[in-house]
Amino acid sequence: MAKEIERKFLVDSAKLCLPENGVIIKQGYIATASKTAVRIRVKGEQAFLTLKGENRGAVRSEFEYPIPMADAQAMLTELCQRPYIDKTRYEIPLGSHIWEVDIFHGDNQGLCVAEIELGAEDEVFAKPQWLSQEVTGDARYYNSSLVKQPYSLWPESNNHY
């Protein structure tokens, strides 16, 4: 079974220096009756169907498959909830890991998060100085949650960045 072990952090954008080569991502979620997330993602010129299981801390099942772009566009239009998740992803290498920094647009404008995938829950990793609060396991920051409750609709006291 495929497992994803991922930690997620908010980013202090004042301390962050982004590389020039970000990738535009558009993704949507297909409604399910369970705690499974079914995602359609267009990342640059590639498209993927992803199924993710329930989070258990930083770990969850994940299955991802490339799909034809035309199929992805049709699924986004016909099957996915609105609003879509629109973001630009930057990959920043640090030590033996790659940090994925997502700058959100549209209904989630103002949100910036960084994720790191690990080989084990207790794996040690270098933390860049631009990291802020850890939000691993905080369901508000799941992309599937941001479709239902976009960042722009959060109470003003929660909008830090």
CATH topology: Hypothetical Protein Pfu-838710-001
**Major sheet characteristics:** 8 strands, antiparallel, barrel
State the CATH architecture.
Answer: Beta Barrel
* Biggest β-sheet: strands ordered side by side in the sheet: 1-5-4-3-2-6-7-8
Tell me the series of helices and strands, N- to C-terminal: EEEEEHEEEEH
Fourth-level CATH superfamily: Hypothetical Protein Pfu-838710-001
Number of domains: 1
Classification by helices and strands: mainly beta
Instruction: Give the end-to-end Cα distance, rounded to a whole number of Å.
Output: 36 Å
Q: Beta fraction of the residues?
A: 35-45%
The low-confidence runs, each spanning 5 or more residues with pLDDT under 50, are: none
Task: Tell how many strands the DSSP assignment holds.
Answer: 9
Radius of gyration: 15 Å
Helical fraction? under 10%
Let me know the average pLDDT.
92
Number of H/I helices? 2
CATH class: Mainly Beta
**Could you say which overall geometry the principal axes of the C-alpha atoms support?**
globular
Question: Briefly, what is this?
Answer:
With 161 residues, this protein is mainly β.
Describe the protein in words:
Helix content is 10%, strand content 42%. It contains 2 helices and 9 strands; from the N terminus they run βββββαββββα. The longest helix has 10 residues. It is globular and about 40 Å long. The mean pLDDT is 92.
Please describe the structure with a list of short key phrases separated by commas or semicolons.
NeuTTM/CthTTM-like, mainly beta, 2 helices, globular, CYTH-like_dom_sf, Hypothetical Protein Pfu-838710-001, CYTH domain-containing protein, CYTH_domain
